[in-house]
Structures are given as C-alpha cells and as structure tokens.
Amino acid sequence: MGGDPVADKSGFLCMYMSNHPDTLVSYVRYWGKVSAQVSSAKMTAIDTKGMTLTYQTKGSTETKEVRVEFEPPLLGYEEVKPRLMGMKAEAEEELGMTRAPQITSFRYSPKFMTTIVAMTFLTYCTLAQSLASSEYAPFFVPGNTILSYLPSWSLQFSWGMVAFCHGFESLYVLYLCKKHRTGFFVGAQYVLAALMLGFPVISDMRKQVQDARIDSIMKGK
C-alpha cells in the first residue's frame, strides 16, 4: 500500500506556509472554529485528510493545537494548492477580510440531469394517476402499474418532501445570490432552478464560487 502523497511532503508544505502567517491565522479562526483573538499560527503537519495547526492567542504564551479536516479529502498532492487557496479565500470572506466573488451568469451542469429525470418520473406518475380514465390512459399504463405496487400515500409524500427540501434549498440559494451579487435576472434563474432541482443547484453554484475565488487569487486581486 502506498504512502500518503501529501504527508510525504508535509515538511516542505509547512515550511512554505510559514511565509503566509496571515493565512494560517485565518485557517485557525474560521476552519478551526477558534473564537479567541489569534495572534499567531503555524502549520505543523498536513496530509490528504487534513492539516494540523498550532496557535497562540493575544495576551497568552500558551500554544494550542487544532486539526482542520479536508472535506472531501485530497486525492493527491496536485490538489493541495487549489484547496488551500480556496479555503483561504472562503475564510477571509467569512471573517470580513475580503469581499465575496461576484457571480454574473447562470450555468447548466450535467449534475442537474439526475434530478431532472427523477422529477420527470414523479410528474409522469402523478399524471398517470389523474389521467387513468382519460383518452391518454394507454400512455400512462406503465406509470399506473408502478403505482399499483406502492402505498396510496406515496405520491403525496414524495411531493411533500420535494416541496419541503427544495423550498429550504431555494432560500439558501437566495442567500448565496445576495452574497455573491448575482443581480435579479441571474439570481431568479438560480432560485427557480433550486425550487425545481434542489441540491445539485447548490452544489454547482458553490463550485462556481470556488472557481471564482481561485481565479481571483491567481489574478492577484
């Protein structure tokens, strides 16, 4: 079994990050969830699963330690730089040190397709039940066959779960749109997409935000 590719270069990475003390402090405060006034911080170890940081707070000489886990874990050494850059940008945004990147366009993601298929199937089954006695009944025979094996309340329960989950997810997307200054038109697209498709929209929007953060850092903004 091979070793951890990031842990193998932990010494070099810790030495490199020692040149960025402000970044390490932001890691401790935001990702390490340390509410005290952190005066200094140091990275002592890093691997694919997370990094270990030591820090001191203002007015104290005691050194404390915090472990920050990577979610998801790094797949290899090449992921270290973009992950740390993204974490730095998010920490500084949440701590009020920098402004969140702006999202100016709505983008479709292939991730949406799974939910689109699921929602289409749910709609088909619902129509199958309501149009079972109409001239369109033959088209809905497969749907009604499926429903015959399910409890009578299954459709109502499914739509209730969709309304509950997608409703809360669309509110979170609205928050993200406001935070990242999408504007009305782009924001409306994201909120409506979240109402219809739910979590995949959140996932892709956060990925777009992460890409914008890294792009901003690479341009030196």
From TrEMBL:
It comes from the Eukaryota. Residues 12-87 form the DUF2470 domain. Keywords: Membrane, Transmembrane, Transmembrane helix. This is DUF2470 domain-containing protein. InterPro entries: DUF2470, Haem_oxidase_HugZ-like_sf, TMEM254. The chain crosses the membrane at residues 112-132, 157-177, 184-202.
